[in-house]
Write a structure and sequence with these properties.
With 253 residues, the protein is α+β, with helices and mostly antiparallel strands. It has a domain of 120 residues: 2-Layer Sandwich (D-amino Acid Aminotransferase, Chain A, domain 1), CATH 3.30.470. It is built from 6 helices and 13 strands. The strands form 3 sheets. Strands 8, 9, 10, 11, 12 and 13 form a 6-stranded antiparallel beta sheet that branches. A 5-stranded antiparallel beta sheet has the order 1-2-3-7-6, covered by helices on one side. Strand 6 and strand 7 form a beta hairpin. Helix 1 packs parallel to helix 6. The protein is globular.
């Protein structure tokens, strides 16, 4: 696909002008960042893996009636998606205590939560994406109450879907982060899942061993990030197992 005008470049993706109105092209980079980009590396093949993994999850959500911005994959690093107005709130769903929740509340990492907990974080890198309440979102005009209610509903449906998919391949879905955008049909708006769903935005632990198969591998220097993402892709059937004589695994077309 011919390169188009760049609209925005983030830490892990570049957004280009789409081929038709209302669309953009999302390009997945090999960059890995942590701690608000204080830690940075280029991990060969990461963008290819995240493109295919996000395609897999978004396609599955679309199939069960959870609306997403995903239209189709264009090539190994790019996908065509609907252009949306991103709500400036990251939505985090937690099933097991880990990361900032454990530090914030003194709960031992790995403690199962009595129910999924939904949190909101204001999207602003300069502030470190601070945690906010629904009252903040309404008071500052980021979202209205009916938006927030729908965002929670969408997030919990994603949680049900991802939890089941991961459990089926021997993985615990510890937590995940999504972004949600608005699309308009005349005067009416709909909220849909946007950005990406990948191991960059989830915590995933092997049920038997506790091995981490997500970006914590990079954050905590636990090994090779591409190997962890490849293991996830292999279990999901996005990538076949390595054969003894080949040059390595290839992504399934």
């Amino acid at each position: 696909m011919a390169r188009r005008k760049m609209i925005y470049e983030g830490k892990a993706k570049i957004i280009y002008e789409g081929p038709e109105p209302g669309t953009v092209v999302q390009y997945f980079k090999d960059d890995a960042t942590a701690f608000n980009a204080e830690k940075h590396a280029v991990v060969e093949g990461k963008g290819v893996l995240n493109n295919r993994l996000s395609e897999h999850f978004m396609t599955g959500l679309n199939a069960i009636g959870v609306p997403t911005h995903f239209i189709r994959r264009l090539n190994m690093r790019e996908q065509l998606v609907r252009q949306v107005e991103i709500i400036p709130l990251e939505v985090v769903v937690r099933n097991i205590a880990a990361g900032s929740m454990s530090k914030r509340l003194g709960i031992e990492e790995g403690t199962a939560l009595p129910r999924p907990i939904v949190e909101f974080y204001y999207k602003d890198d300069s502030l470190g994406d601070p945690m906010v309440t629904e009252e903040h979102a309404i008071a500052f005009g980021w979202a209205q109450q009916h938006d927030l209610d729908e965002m929670v509903s969408l997030a919990l449906r994603v949680n049900d879907f991802l939890s089941g998919v991961m459990f089926g391949i021997g993985i615990k879905l510890v937590d995940f982060k999504i972004e949600i955008g608005r699309i308009y049909d005349g005067d009416f708006q709909r909220l849909i899942i946007a950005d990406e769903i990948s191991p960059d935005s989830c915590r995933l632990w092997d049920i038997e061993t506790g091995e981490k198969l997500d970006k914590d591998v990079f954050r905590q220097d636990l090994g090779n990030l591409a190997d962890a993402y490849t293991e996830l892709a292999t279990r999901l059937g996005v990538m076949p197992r390595k054969s003894g004589n080949g040059t390595g695994p290839k992504l399934v077309p």
